[in-house]
Structures are given as C-alpha cells and as structure tokens.
Amino acid sequence: MSGRGRALLSDRARRPAAAAAAGFAALAVILGIVEHDSVRQGAFDTRVDNWITGLFASHRDDLVVVLRTLGSPLVVTSCVLVAAGICAATRRLRAALLVAISVPLASAITEFVGKPLVGRRFWLFLSYPSGHVTGIATLAVALIIVAASPSARGLPVVIRAVLPAAAVAAVAAVTLAVVAGRYHYFTDTIGAAGVAGATGLGTALALDRLADRPAVRKLRGAIRPGRNARGRNQGGAGPVDADMSSGHKITITPSDARIEVSVGGQKLADSRRAVVLAETGLAPRYYLPREDVRTELLQSTSTESTCPFKGQAAYWSAQVGGEVHSDIVWSYESPIPEAAGIAGLMCFWTERGAELTVDGVPAEGSSTVSPH
Question: How many other C-beta atoms are found inside a 10 Å radius of the C-beta of residue 232?
C-alpha cells in the first residue's frame, strides 16, 4: 500500500477531526479557567465523586491500586513502545509516529503547562488535568485513530473493533480509580480527556498534512519506485526502467492537481493526492488513494491481468444508477518492486466510460491500448 493509503485520516474525516480537536482543547481550557487556583470541590465534583467512591466502597483500596496502575507512566510508556513498534514493523510509519509523539506530548502539556497554569490542588498536589488519565486517554485516542484509519482496512474486523473498545475501557478504569482513590476530582479527568483528544487528533492532522507537502511527496515518490538493487533507479528522481533491454520505462510522480472521476454522471473519486504513472507507449494514468474513492459503489470482480512492468492487477466494477460498468477500476495490490509507488492505489479506465478531469479540465490523450 502506498504512503497515501497509510493516511491517518481520510480527506472526508479531516475537517470533522479538526473541529473535534478544537472542541477538546476548548473543553480543557474552559474547565481550567473555571477551576483556576481552586482547592475545593464544586457541587458537580461533590456529587460525581461521591457516587464513584460509593461504587468501590466494599473493596476500594485493592481495586483502585490495580486500576490506577493502568495509567502509570511505566505502563503507558511500555504500551506506547509496543504499539509504535508493531506499527513500524508493519510499515505503518505514520501510525507509529502518532503513538510515539502524541502521548509524551500530551503528558508534557499536562505536567508543564496545564498544572502550573491552572494551579488547582487536591490536598497539596497540583491536580488539573490528571496526568494518569492524560497518558492512557491519549494512547486510546491514538489507537482509535489507527484502527479507524484507511491503512487499517486490511486488518480483521475483530481487531479493529476490540482495540478501540479495550482502549476506552482502560480510560474508564483509570478515571474511576483516580477519583475513587481520592487522587483527583472528576473534573480533573475531564480536563485530561480534553488534552488527550486535542493532542491526539491534532498530531494526526499535523502528520497527514506534513506527509502531503509537495517536498515530502516528491521524496517519497523518488525512493519508493525501487526497493532492491535490481532495476532500481539509483538517482531517485528520474524514470525507473522496468526492462532496460526493451527500453520500456515507467515513471511514477506525485501530483498536486485535483483529480475528479465520474462514471455515469456520478462522482466516484476526488483527490489531490494522486500519483501519475507515465509508461512507454501509453497515456499517463492517475492512481488515487483508496480513501479518496467511493469504494462503497465498487464491486470486486474475479478479473485479473498481469503486466510484466507492474505486476498483477485486480479489478472492480462500478454500480451507478442501476447500471454496472464492468472492470472500470483496477489496482496493483502487490506490484513488482519497480512499480511499488502505485501499490494499493486505484486507477479508472477512461476508455470504458470513466470521465477524469485534472484541475477541472478533461484529461486528454487517453490511449485506446489496454493499460495492462
């Protein structure tokens, strides 16, 4: 799968994610202002804290210690290292960076900015926001983003469902423990959740935005077409020869243009993160990130084809307005190393009725020759 396929947030999710991050930040700031320099429980904290404490009345000490440990720096750090390591090992670098950056960043904001500025105390200790809840909640936000990201679509549904559920359960357990153990007021944990949500979503947005910068995309496009010494373009910037003896060349280049694709009058794709594949004897082809394609309107088919210069392609038909457009989309899920830059991306077959525009202008020069 390409780097675009490894985005943390789809294009459709980025605006809501930015709004949610702003909402979480506002929640933490407003509560911090309300509780500034306070040393007493308000009516809300008194009611909620007493209710939570009552839940643990019969075995508070032992259970509180166990649950509170889930949010300890040692446990959270260990989980961060494991999660980031798994993401890196499965070549989900952006996900690894999200986990590795967001959790310590949120903890630093809590300990070195939030607590000193708000100055709220529980007994003699600064308490707003809760450090234990900040750490585990930020880890939970990061894991939920990773589980819901486009790059996780290939994972089993059970894993994608269990991971967020377990993360939320851990946050709830730590929240109850720090309140029942009288380490924090309940509003301290709400403020921590605000910091966690704002930091986790903000980090994901920043990483995706950084990866979309032209300089980063060009670098990624330069280093990905070849993954081994055989057939690799050592210069990194020019075309890659898939078969030097025949003079057949393939060049894969990131594009900043807006690519829109319609079939039967229905828009099926809209992307500013395409790559252009130029191949000897064929018109340029635009390969789009899967999260920028309306895959709910596509149906996988049994059709396959093999290209000696790219690998084996899989196909999808589009179902639009009651009409089926057969095998109008293809993708190289596991291309040969020389064409790795298009792995997992989708391409529309304009010769079969797909209407493609580049920055609003209809694409020209479509070939009548099969692209495979």
Answer: 16
Q: How far apart are CA 196 and CA 20, in angstroms?
A: 12
Per DSSP, the chain holds a count of helices (H) and strands (E) of 10, 14
pLDDT bracket for residue 231 (50, 70, 90):
very low
Instruction: Give tens-digit pLDDT for 12-44.
Output: 788 999 999 999 999 999 999 999 998 888 899
**DSSP single-letter state for residue 293:** B
- Look at residue 6 in the predicted model and tell me its pLDDT: 64
Distance CA 149, CA 6 (A): 8
Q: Which residue has the tokens 């997992």?
A: 344
* Short-list 1, 2, 9, CA closest to 145: 9
What is d(CA 194, CA 200) in angstroms, rounded to the nearest whole number?
Answer: 10
Both tokens assigned to 203: 């980090």
| Helix residue spans in 90-182 (DSSP H) | 93-109, 115-118, 131-148, 157-180
186-201 pLDDT tens trace: 999 999 999 999 999 9
User: What is the reported pTM?
Assistant: 0.65
- List beta partners, residue 298: 318
What tokens were used for 21? 């991050």
Contacts of 160 (CB under 8 A, 6+ apart): 147, 148, 152
Residue showing tokens 């100055």: 119
